[in-house]
Specification:
3-stranded antiparallel β-sheet, 3 strands, alpha+beta
Length: 84
């Protein structure tokens, strides 16, 4: 796996904060974020009834909007790898 660090939320304590990576080889974006509270989690599941509940192998995470440029950067890195 060739994971490339993209960025970390600049407004957090740098210990437990949203972080992003790009894995160009696997063509995936990796995100670390905050877990939502139970109410938000339930709302997410309720807005997608065809999807059902979130399986144990997956998670809903929160990423602050200020990290959108980093998300784009991670997506760009994965897309560039597809063009090689």
């Amino acid at each position: 796996m060739s994971v490339e660090f993209v960025g970390i939320d600049p407004n957090t304590d740098r210990d437990r904060c949203p972080t992003e990576w790009a894995d160009a080889e696997a063509q995936e974006v990796l995100l670390q974020g905050w877990k939502p509270d139970a109410d938000t989690h339930a709302q997410c599941e309720a807005t997608s009834p065809a999807h059902g509940s979130v399986p144990d192998t997956e998670a809903i995470i929160r990423i602050p909007a200020r990290m959108i440029p980093m998300i784009r950067e991670a997506c760009d890195a994965v897309e560039r790898a597809q063009l090689r």
